[in-house]
Specification:
By secondary structure, the chain is α/β, with parallel strands linked by helices. Helix content is about 45%, strand content about 20%. It has two domains: about 5-165 and about 345-365, Rossmann fold (3-Layer(aba) Sandwich); about 165-345, Rossmann fold, CATH 3.40.50.2000. It contains 15 helices and 13 strands. The strands form two sheets. Strands 3-2-1-4-5-6-7 form a seven-stranded parallel sheet, sandwiched between helices. It is globular.
């Protein structure tokens, strides 16, 4: 059987949720049946691109879509001209993906999948205006959750495929916890963590204001912020203005987030909007109590470890919740939590099988 050619299109390949999902698919998909290529614009993290290549994925690197959109689309068009793809699978959260869809259609790709990962976008008005064009161009919709699907596809049909993880990788490991806590001098500190791109959506300013109030009550806290992004420097500057910089570890972009999670005590995610954040599956797998914004889908509470709070309230409410949250015996609960995550459909190996079946069914339907 000839391999089927699939092209994934991702706006950029930085350390973010969409890149992590795509990386997981690329790692676990059956390479004897599928030839996977990825087209992505800048910024692209070298280590992530290297991981893709090590997993047998062809990577085509284009211009930055935000600063050089025309060149980005030209690059994509050239790739599609030179290669015949059975399926184009576009990842994003906006109907402005019409341009990628148009290029795919122009280059005679019959199966054009759009995969929704969020519940909002940067240009909601334009997003609404282009709806008829978008609906006429994509041929199949996938979403990471119901809200993300409703956001992008409205009343049209779509299929939900959960954002899966390599569950075993997140098993609690006390040795790794001790190693990282010793290295960063956390000792007996209570460590609060957050993983996410430094963007408006993730609401880092709110995190800093919560943390400042927390330190006024108890100096025994540390904050760990993992990720990079456009607002990184602004948040570092604000932390200095609030006089809390010395109590924060700005980790940046790292490939061993699962190890860092072992060292945490509690996670927070006061996002302005979300689809179904993959990080919440990871945090629950490792047994961390979590406090998240009520803008996040309630379906993400797979294990009972998540508490939802409004981001329209004073930071004191979050501070009270943090200080009153009991920490779990993570050694004792680890196996049980991993079983729950698997049973609820978040094991990447099972999700990839579902995706492979979908690809074959779609290819068969257009070749009849």
């Amino acid at each position: 059987m000839m391999k089927k050619n699939i092209l994934y299109i991702v706006k950029n390949f930085a350390v973010n949720g969409i890149s992590k999902v795509v990386l997981n698919y690329a790692e676990f998909i059956d390479k004897s049946k599928f030839e996977i290529s990825i087209f992505t614009g800048q910024p692209a993290k070298d280590t992530l691109i290297e991981q893709l290549k090590q997993n047998g994925i062809k990577v085509y690197l284009g211009f930055n879509k935000d600063s050089s959109a025309l060149n980005y689309y030209k690059d994509l068009n050239n790739i599609m001209k030179k290669n015949k793809f059975d399926i184009v699978h576009i990842h994003g959260n906006s109907r402005l993906l019409i341009f990628e869809l148009l290029i795919a259609k122009k280059n005679k790709c019959k199966i054009r999948i759009v995969h929704s990962h969020n519940t909002c976008c940067n240009h909601p008005v334009i997003n609404r205006i282009v709806t008829p064009f978008f609906n006429s161009l994509y041929t199949y919709g996938i979403a990471c959750g119901e809200e993300a699907g409703n956001w992008l596809f409205g009343k049209k049909n779509f299929e939900i495929i959960n954002n899966g993880i390599n569950v075993e990788q997140y098993k609690f490991d006390d040795n790794i916890r001790k190693k990282i806590r010793k290295k960063y001098n956390f000792n007996d500190k209570k460590v609060i963590g957050h993983v996410g791109s430094f963007s408006e959506q993730k609401n880092h300013k709110y995190i800093l204001h919560i943390f400042k109030k927390l330190l006024e009550i108890d100096e025994n806290y540390k904050l760990v912020l993992i990720g990079t992004g456009r607002l990184f420097d602004n948040i570092v500057t604000l932390s200095k203005e609030l006089n809390i910089y010395d109590n924060i570890v700005f980790v940046g972009a790292v490939d061993n987030v699962y190890e860092w999670l072992q060292a945490m005590d509690l996670m927070i995610l006061p996002s302005l909007y979300e689809g179904f954040p993959l990080v919440l599956v990871e945090w629950q797998s490792v047994g961390l109590p979590i406090i998240v914004s009520d803008k996040v889908t309630k379906n993400c509470n797979l294990t009972g470890l998540i508490e939802f709070l409004s981001i329209d309230v004073q930071e004191d409410v979050w501070v009270d919740k943090i200080t009153s949250t009991k920490l779990l015996n993570r050694n004792k609960n680890s196996e049980k939590l991993l079983k729950i995550i698997k049973s609820k459909g978040f094991d990447i190996s099972e999700n990839v099988k579902k995706l492979e079946r979908l690809y074959f069914n779609l290819i068969e339907s257009v070749s009849d």
